[in-house]
Amino acid sequence: MSEAVEKRLRTYVDLVRKWQPVKNLVAPSTLPDLWRRHVADGAQALAAAPQARRWLDLGSGAGFPGLVTAAFLADEPGASVTLVESNGRKAAFLMAVARELRLPVRVLSDRIESVAQRQAGSLDGIEAVSARALASLDKLLGYAEPWLSNGALGVFHKGQDFVSEWQEATQSWVFDMVKHESRIESDSVIAVISNLRRKTA
Questions:
Q1: Domain that holds residue 102
Q2: In the chain, how many domains are there?
Q3: pTM: predicted TM-score of the whole model, two decimal places
Q4: Distance CA 103, CA 99 (A)
Q5: What is the CATH number of the domain that holds 142?
Q6: CB 69, CB 130: distance < 8 Å
Q7: pLDDT tens across the length of the chain (201 residues)
Q8: DSSP SS3 for 61
């Protein structure tokens, strides 16, 4: 990690702590372990798809992993991270952090379904779609289909229910998957999905 990236992340963590009482950004029980539980965990998205430079992060919340990805990519030419967050208070926080850290970030304060229906065409060139603690794998694939079906990777943090979620998803979808064991949570994985298509009857 470069000095510039570390500085951005430290400032980001300070902002999470500052805004937490007002915005309820993360579970209070995780605040003492913010670096490991959220920052280091979030950094695993980019580590799982290191070649991707144009990211779409769904259900961004407090910005894990989307803002962490942007902090790492801020000095990369052509890099961009689009954050989708329907909660107006959290979207305001994301915009404030992006401005202060001068990150290559665009925030869409809208529902994921609306973005997929109305703005998928304006988000051409997306190379990876990330999500953490958002929905089951089957639902995530539905949300991300406009981009994954055009060649983007799905990079999804999944927990202890991953196997049952994967089995459910294969009832409706055909896809390739590379599974990375989480370095942070022993029962979690980062699932990288490619070549997505819906199953036909």
A1: 3-198
A2: 1
A3: 0.94
A4: 7
A5: 3.40.50.150
A6: yes
A7: 899 999 999 999 999 999 888 788 888 887 778 899 899 999 999 999 999 999 999 999 999 999 999 999 999 999 999 999 999 999 999 999 999 999 999 999 999 999 988 776 777 899 999 999 899 999 999 999 999 999 999 999 999 999 999 999 999 999 999 999 999 988 999 999 999 999 986
A8: coil
